[in-house]
Amino acid sequence: MKKSFMMLLTLVFVASIALAGCGSKAETKTTDEKTPTTDATQTPTEPEKKSEPFSITLRHIQVGEPQKNRLAILQDVVKKTEADVPGLKIELDGVEDNTNRNTKLPAEMAAGNVPQIFDLFGGTKDAQKYAQAGKLLDLTPIIEELGIKDQFMDLSAFSVDGKVYGLPIGSSAEGMYYNTEIFTKYNLTAPKTWDEFENILATLKSNGVTPLAGFAKDGWAAAMLPNSLWARYAGPEFIAGLKDNTSDWTSPEITAAMTKLDEWNKKEYFVKGQLGIDYAGRIGQISTGKAALMFDGSWSSSSFADPKQAGDVVGKIGFFFLPPAPGGKGDQTAVNGNSSANGYGFRADLNENELKAAKAFIKNMYTLENQEKGLLTDNTLPSMKLPKESTDKVTDQIVRQVTEGMSAAGALFPVFDAFVTSEVNTAIEQNVQKLFSGKITPAEFGQNVAKAAGK
Amino acid sequence: MNKALRNPAIYILFIVPSLILYFLFFIYPLITSVYYGFTDWDGLNNPQFVGFDNFVKLFEDADFLHSILNNIYFICFSVGIQVPLIILFALLIGSVKRFQRLYKTTVFLPSILSTSVIGILWGFIYDPDMGLLNRFLGLFGVDTIYWLSDEKTAFLSILITNAWQWMGFYIVLVLAAILAIPKELTEAAAIDGATGFQQATKITVPLIMPIISVVIMLSIAGAMRVVDIVIVMTKGGPAGSTDVMASYMVSRAFSYGQYGYGTTIALIIFVFSLVLTALYQIAFNRKASEGVEY
């Protein structure tokens, strides 16, 4: 008797644990089943009808001081979207850019639990890879319905087989920022030729000013300047050729470009200890006068308009693209311009309600007003075709110099990371760092990357 | 009651839940890892079976071989420098009469902090321009040292930080063993004219050998699986020079999306740890059986 009682007790105990484990799952299932039915009766024409509340998660990367203007635009859009879709609650989930792009999102993609809306980069190792694996929502019907498809400048980085899987929030360009005050002090001006440029670096160095900001702890940041050097020495065709892996990494031009980088590094033109400084440390180097120039993307220009981040150098920063390289191949007037970088992607298996939310989000986010707002308040170059009267409103000196430089350019070349495989990307990032640390020679750089590219 | 407990079915009932969990979270992942280790997998598409390609690639990968070397340095530092210091500090704290609890708490404090906090904290200390360390060395006219950016000093800086974090925990372990030694033994030795040093080396240390053995084994295991402090402090940099096996695995699998290759590294770490711990167990158990007892 006692024995069977004990057995029973134990069984109940074990069963209760097992059942407790199943509990929440069963619960979610019932709510899941419920929502579509309420949804079916829900039409936009009868908003007074009480709608079943539901929430979606929106992963964004607008965290920290430099991103505050971008966050404000996003919050506005979220508010509007919530008002448009009855019952919708959007949970904002802010994650730092690099962590989201390279750690969190890939893991979530593998596990199949990505948020409904998330920040997404274009290119082969992001949007296109996920799209090919069937993880992203095809946005083509939505943007066609909203009539915004033709308003984007370029959606190729987010497209696979003519279908669009993500929408860029802005565009960007990479070039050299410089401290105008330091330049005036040493009688320097923005360079028109390569010799002038090298002269600037040498003059600053000889006067005890570190010419170039350094932040090579983050591999992707370390590879920004090399990208433009490759385009100067080996021509914009080199970058374009990365798309179908026809570019030759072991060519003398690439070796020459890396030799130049190596030379600058050996002459200590970069801030000392740059391999231990992460990307976030760059603004401080310019604002404290530790370095006079910084090679970075146009997205950083908003930081130089904010006294909280840039301190005394607000209004004292200029921008130029690298001048033509002597003996460089191809169009030397071409500058870096990325018609799209990051934007938003949507999970492939959205339910009916979530789809409505996604549609409303796209409608509210991708408007010319927001593009203009981004350009004027946040210095984000537009990803949609803005009319001239909008771009004419720009007063920020850096943005003007960026856009003028881009419109004067013969052509635009993109950044390599949108085209190469993740193996090649890894090899580039690591070998640039190794070159900076003196572990490899410029020629070895090309050989190592070529090996990763399967050549 | 007793009858019920004599029934093996009862025991099985109790064990089954934990066995299920153990299987689910340990055995099953282990088996799937072995499978994924032989595939080329990006985490999204179907894994492609590639045989021993990953293993061949791994042992030709200079960066990975360098990370193994770093793990070995880590073990040497832990066992060769950290453990003697742990014993020394434990002996010192064990012999003080006043404020013993204060010392105990103080040395233990770092091990309750999270590694991220410690990594960032020491990042400030090592900062080349404003850091405490360089400021202090600057008083003696030492030039700026780029602790975490220079290949020569970066790994040492991590080792020191890691030692600072974990020594307190082991000191408390050893201290507990020291305080458990019957007072009569040391008192008798003192009456016989043994000096403090002789008491420590001839009586205390031989008696706490079993706990020291545990500390050494934990240090080896800790050094094999170290990863967080490296990621927080240097991300494996400058230029991969401070990567240990586990941080190399994390960067390969998660940052660069080479899940198959990353799993291969994980398997190698597993095998290495297994072999090392087994070797140590065999070597030390033989020695410990000849140990002193009271």
TrEMBL record, chain A:
Segments of skewed composition (Basic and acidic residues): 26-36
The UniProt entry, under Gene3D superfamilies, shows: Periplasmic binding protein-like II
Q: Where is the region Disordered?
A: 25-55
Annotated signal sequence is 1-20
> Taxonomically, which superkingdom?
Bacteria
Alphabetized, the UniProt keywords read: Signal, Transport
PANTHER family with a match to the protein in the record? ARABINOSE-BINDING PROTEIN-RELATED (PTHR43649), OSMOPROTECTIVE COMPOUNDS-BINDING PROTEIN GGTB (PTHR43649:SF29)
Entry similarity comment? Belongs to the bacterial solute-binding protein 1 family.
Record protein name field: Sugar ABC transporter substrate-binding protein
Automatic annotation (TrEMBL), chain B:
Q: Which Pfam families match?
A: BPD_transp_1 (PF00528)
Mainly localized where?
Answer: membrane
SUPFAM superfamilies with a match to the protein in the record: MalF N-terminal region-like (SSF160964), MetI-like (SSF161098)
Q: Which Gene Ontology BP annotations are present?
A: transmembrane transport
Q: Which PROSITE patterns match?
A: ABC_TM1
Q: Which family does it belong to?
A: Belongs to the binding-protein-dependent transport system permease family.
Q: What is this protein called?
A: Sugar ABC transporter permease
Q: Which organism is it from?
A: Paenibacillus selenitireducens
